[in-house]
Amino acid sequence: MAALTRTCDRTTPTGVDTRLPWWALALPVAAFTVLLLLVTGPAEAAAAGGDEGIGRFLQLIGQTLAL
Hints:
The chain has 67 residues and is mostly helical. The chain contains 2 helices and no strands.
């Protein structure tokens, strides 16, 4: 007679796995942090006096969201 053993399933009764791997959250957070540093960093650079493309773009977004 075979004994019934319970296997550990990580799926819900519908068969959908709801657990995420650690990198599914870590990679977007790291990418957002790097991009945020790239956008905010050039303002402190010595050669930041020339083109104001990013600054003007961010200013337009701020004005649009303030509606």
